[in-house]
Amino acid sequence: MTTLAPTLSIRYFPRAANWLRDLFLIVVGSLFVAALAQVKIPLPFTPVPITGQTFGALLVGAALGSKRGAAALALYLAEGMIGLPFFAGGAHGVSVVIGATGGYLMGFIVAAYFIGILAERGLERNAYTSFIPFLIGTAIIYACGISWLAIALGSLSKAITLGLLPFLAGDAIKLIAAALVLPAAWKLVK
Asked: Does domain 4-184 have CATH number 1.10.1760.20?
């Protein structure tokens, strides 16, 4: 089974080489996450802001599939590390990746891969099952982010208080939105 973006790329660019379509999808996926990262709401009590990155990582993983999705998020991370203003609010550099939010950024790659695996099995096509990949992806992002934040803060309880609890409601909305968008997009494609 295939995912949404490769299906569309084959439909609209049937004569393009596979590697060229893959490269295009990976670059577009990284730019999509970079654009959503510019949606940033800082919270005064935590080093972790509310951003659109999580929503982007969820959608890119499901739309591109496991390998392309993970590659797009790895490219996004590399783009920000080399100095492009692609991280939350235009931030960039290695210091962001090794900083308090670095675990979330690295978690995007892992989450995109596993969301992609589930999407390749068709779970994102049905309104009844589409929340499963996004719930698992969100849990992966939290596991990576909170673990890293706990090391940065020297306390797991502080990491949970500052890096999980304030974001549960917003991330639930992002998860539900992603779970609604993908099945609807598949209906349009058919």
From this structure: yes
Q: What are the counts of helices (DSSP H) followed by strands (DSSP E) for the chain?
A: 9, 2
Q: Residue 50: beta bridge partners?
A: 41
pTM higher than 0.90: yes
Single-letter code of the amino acid located at 165: L
From first to last of its 190 residues, the chain has per-residue pLDDT tens of 789 999 999 999 999 999 999 999 999 999 999 999 999 888 888 888 889 999 999 999 999 999 999 999 999 999 999 999 999 989 999 999 999 999 999 999 999 999 999 999 999 999 889 999 999 999 999 999 999 999 999 999 999 999 999 999 999 999 999 999 999 999 888 7
CA geometry: angle 21, 23, 27, nearest 5 deg: 120
Domain spans of the chain, in order of start:
4-184
Name the amino acid, one letter, at 2: T
Neighbours of 14 (CB within 10 A): 8
Residues present in the chain in total: 190
